[in-house]
Fold:
Amino acid sequence: MSTTKKFVAVAVGLGLVTLSACTSSGSGDGEGASESKTVTLVSHDSWAASKSVISDFEKQSGYQVKVLKDGDAVQALNKAILTKDNPQGDVLFGVDNTLLSRAFDNDLFQKYEAKDSDLLPPEYRIDQQKKRVTPIDFGDICVNYDKAYFEENDLTPPESFDDLVKPEYKDLLVTENASTSSPGLGFLLGTAAKYGGDGWQDYWEKLKGNGVKVVDGWEQAYNEEFSGSAGGKKAKGDRPLVVSYASSPPAEVVFADPKPDTAPTGVAYGTCFRQIEYAGLLSNAKNAKGGKALIDFLISKKFQADMPLNMFVYPMREDAQIPEEFTKYGAPAEDSEVMAPKDIAKNRDQWVKSWTSLVLK
Amino acid sequence: MLELDEATVRFGGRTALDAVGLDVAEHEIVCVLGPSGSGKSTLLRVVAGLQPLDSGRVFLDGRDLGGVPAHKRGVGLMFQDHQLFPQRDVGGNVAFGLRMHGASKAQQGIRVRELLELVGLPGAASRAIASLSGGEQQRVALARALAPRPRLLMLDEPLGQLDRSLRERLVVELRELFSELGTTVLAVTHDQGEAFALADRVVVMRDGRIAQSGTPLEVWQRPADEFVARFLGFENVVGASVSGEAADTPWGKVPMPAGAPQGEVTLLIRPAGVRLVPSAEGLRCTVAARTFRGTHVSVHLQPESAPRLEAACALRDAPEPGDEVGVAFDAAEIVVLDGAPISP
Amino acid sequence: MDVARTEVRAGRPRTPAPGKSAARLALLVVPVVFFALFFAYPVAAIVARGLKVDGAWQLGRVGEVLAQSDIRHVLWFTTWQALVSTALTLLIALPGAYVFARFDFRGKQVLRAVITVPFVLPTVVVGTAFLALVGRGGLLDELWGVRLDTTVWAILLAHVFFNYAVVVRTVGGLWSQLDPRQEEAARVLGASRLAAWRKVTLPALGPAVAAAALMVFLFTFTSFGVVQILGGPTFATLEVEIYRQTSEIFDLSTAAVLTMIQFVAVGAILAVHAWTVRRRETALRLVDASVTARRPRGAGQWALLAAVLGTAAVLLVLPLAVLVQRSLDAPGFAYYKALTSDESGVFLVPPIEAVGNSLQYALAATALALLIGGLAAAALTRRDAGRLIRGFDALLMLPLGVSAVTVGFGFLIALDEPPLDLRSSWILVPLAQALVGVPFVVRTMLPVLRAVDVRLREAAAVLGASPWRVWREVDLPMVRRALLVAAGFAFAVSLGEFGATVFIARPDNPTLPVAVARLLGRAGELNYGQAMALSTILMVVCAVALLLLERIRTDRTGEF
Structure:
């Protein structure tokens, strides 16, 4: 900053500080002196945790936790990369396996191996040499079906990718734009994992021939087009199959009043793609020590058990207790398609591009 | 009391005030008279501090007003279209200046009552501005300007927008009021009747300069030059060649008062000095038009081969248009004007 | 016109007095610093990040980006849909402007507030509601089996939905003040009704229509949410593409080029707009709006009124009604009740607290917008101000045409050093919202301030009022109503502002639109229902704010 710029900045800054001091919305707490006492977590908008769990950590560790929600997962990552030299926080949570390479390419994280990381399933503990990220949770992107529709029409719901191109499911599926939507991309990657880098295009040709509908985002697909969701019912959605999450059926139960006995929707388990969310210590974290403690906390038993009903994901720790509602209305997929982050990194952009011209044009 | 020294204002390439020097004495009523664009409003704005000078100085009570902002000059200005504050009632308008000068509520109340009585609007304090007639607005504007007891009161076309009878009445009222209060007044108008009725002294302006300054009588009797004469409404202005007690004009030989300067001059023959005589005598003219002026009739006469002449005559003597009349001139009503002579 | 008057005109200085213009420039300091710091600097920073590699500008990227057929397609689509949307909006809204200007009917005030609600509602909400009209099972589908969702028609109609009020307010506001006697005079002189309208009213309205059209063009040219939600993946405007490139694909250099293209386009639109606005300020004989409106007479006028009300009902009220209906679609106001509990887990706080957050942010943003916009308007009051100052007038409108994601990301990399490390401060949200609010404040206040007679201020000065007192005693009472109207608009706009807010990192105190978006992003009936309930609350708050404004509408309204 030049001197004049600095002067102006100081002047305006002072004005703003006075302004903010006048209001009681005391969210911008101590940056300076209490720096080491505050640890900042940057995450996406879906972040949620029980207050008690967080405050237990605060009491135990002596750190104040500040959470910044920075848009959806992609935005949160992009912003973290933009502010790499002067990060907004200490830990970034919510980079999934489809995006991890972008974080690595930009040297976003520094090395840290979480205390209990040996308790996590080894297949998810990637990057073992550099130890830059810790897996926190996983979920599955799967086709959901509207139970009522299939009962009424006396039709068996599809179970696999192969089923989706069968004539009896013509014009039933709605999915999301792979270039703008995370489940849309996951579904594309799932087909690529299943049919291989050369085969997925043939599959999508067939899917297109079978009347797949593509909308821009999950909200439209699930709340407007899908006939099985609460929103879709009101919007008279007419697609009984939608690309969503394996955890969507439990959500339909938990977020209903009164709660139904069974979920109104089901999961086609043969259409799943596994999404793994990671957390990492940001390269220029101001409170690296606090950040490390926070990552340890994210894989603590307490937090892991708290996650499912807050963020609708499965905890990484196998010994974390999963709430009954969660297991009762939906189980994790047994054999999800998986793909190594480096394979995703290598092909993602090219696949999305050819997918766009194949399906959208 | 007020003194302008070489006051000059330029707007772009145009000079609105050109090195104007003017003195106004205590208790004097000075009227600046001039046509549109002569710079008379600019003069007021300069004194009020609304228009900075390009050069020259303004003194009030000996103090140089340069750099003193309008609100600290302690002068009053009444705008030509009054500019009353539409959001305030009559009392609020009149009290405005008092309030600005920190007068107490009680003082304001007393003074407002006093002034409204003075301008003939007793009890009007709570009336809305929109409900006032033109004459009433004029009175409120005056009361507002007078309220803070300005050292100098300036009036910009004070009666400009009122109808004739109201104007004539108010002129008299104002004159009485000002002499009663002893107010020093600098007024600006384009109406000579108004100026002559109101002023102790008249200043005629032309193109940013002062063309003539004097008592109404002096100016009326001896206009300084052709411009002033014509501005005052005189039409019989011609170039002439004077020799002895007579002058050669397009209208023939004209008698001159004794002691008149000799040679090429500009002459003003007042309408009263144009006497109608039987058509056989004097200059033969045809009556072109006749205008009724209340106290007299103005007659426009067309000689055979000379410019028109204006004559004033009594009501019962006035000829009909088309009549043939003769014209003779009266030396007492003939004035030699200053300034370059116009060629005959 | 009498002589004396002419002289005053001629005698008035052409150039402002040096002291006064310096004071006016001083007034501009705060707005200029505000815009430089919170708009120009962040936007420049993000563009530079995209286009500057090792300190060298990669201007060759412009050519490369423009050479891509996808991008050219986006540019073409952006332009033509904006043109068609504008034409369509004028076609549908001009009769509305006439009806609102010239007819008196029951419920007019309420209706005028209602038609403005879409303008300030977040697109997330509106998109959902609008599908109820043109989508599956919507009115058109039920009546004629026509479905327009994911067709370009959905986008075009939604643009009409959004901008109807812009035309009705801008054109209708002036129309209602045009003296009907002028048209009558033309008719007495033998002109037919149509000819009288064409020769007298149309020329007078022309600049207002042009100004409205340009505003609509600007809003549709930079349309984001509508295109994203209703257009499906096949349609993209420049704004949507900038969002995708920045936020999803993270190709900052392409985004920077597109930002620059949009900047140039928007700048051109604004220049034309400023020009028409200035023309609109030419002398027109205006009368009090309340005397020009009368009850419709004859079958023709009643039919026109019915047609306009019918259109407004279908196009504007119905989608809003659907929202309300969906929010009530559970026994015992269950969705509303759920808003007060914090069990849902989507937030750390009960969603209803978003209302409080929104109000706080909106109040702060309104105060900021009034301060900045008020100072700018005061400085721009003189019509004979220099070219530079007039240019600033147009500049203030630029934030309306720059992608929220550009500004949001720009904040992130520009305001990251103390004392301006505002990235995680709550003040950033009202700051971003104020950027959008300022143009509304300026546009509302400027015409009123310009209508105040300079000599009224001089009269006060001569009576002993200092410049500050003059402003307080003369200007303030006259602009108070305009100020309230401006405040209301700034308030409603920041209440509904979504783009910039969502791109700004913030602690967990979501605003209403953000909360709605987050609820919609979750599966489950209660989430969906709460989203509808919150949208309804947002709508009602906006409508109430606007309705209050209706009561204090100024005689001389600005453009909105």
Observations:
- Residues 20 and 26 of chain A are 8 Å apart (CA to CA).
- Residues 1-34 of chain A have pLDDT under 50 and may be disordered.
- Chain A touches chain C through 78 residues (CB under 8 Å).
- Residues 34-138+276-315 of chain A form a domain with the D-Maltodextrin-Binding Protein; domain 2 fold (CATH 3.40.190.10).
